[in-house]
Design a protein that fits this description.
- By secondary structure, the protein is of the alpha+beta class.
- It has one domain: Beta-Lactamase (2-Layer Sandwich).
- It has a 5-stranded antiparallel sheet, with helices on both faces.
- A hairpin with a 5-residue loop joins β1 and β2.
- This is Roadblock/LC7 domain-containing protein.
- It comes from Novosphingobium organovorum.
Length: about 120
């Protein structure tokens, strides 16, 4: 799977700053594109986001909910962070991470495009 090519599609979203494919178990990035503003570390942001993903999945398990995370949104003062697990049956624990400029991004359109790209990334 050519993760970089699919992530490059995400960079066509208005306001997109960076994107990554992340292993939620380890927090390591498998592929990245773009960069964070102000010298931020994309790999570090992805690792931190994997903690959020693991925590949410733990809550679902604790509550015994027969459900899965479709996507998550973290709203910051200047950015949106979108997180979307790869939907597959192999239990890989991979997710797509998308960083958007809040002033330029259309959140609804970004979620739709992320969903489309994620469906192509599912392995």
């Amino acid at each position: 799977m050519d993760f970089e090519a699919k992530l490059a599609e995400l960079m066509g979203i208005n306001g997109a700053l960076a994107a990554a494919i992340v292993d939620s178990a380890s927090g390591m990035t498998l592929a990245t594109v773009g960069e964070m503003r102000d010298g931020g570390d994309l790999d570090l942001a992805a690792a931190g986001t994997s903690e959020v993903m693991r925590a949410q999945q733990g809550v679902l398990k604790l509550l015994a909910l027969d459900d899965a995370v479709e996507d998550m949104l973290i709203t910051l003062g200047q950015h949106y962070q979108l997180i979307r697990p790869l939907t597959d049956d192999s239990g890989t624990g991979l997710f797509a991470y998308l960083l958007l400029d809040r002033q330029q991004a259309n959140l609804a359109l970004a979620r739709i495009k992320l969903r489309e790209v994620e469906a192509q990334l599912a392995i």
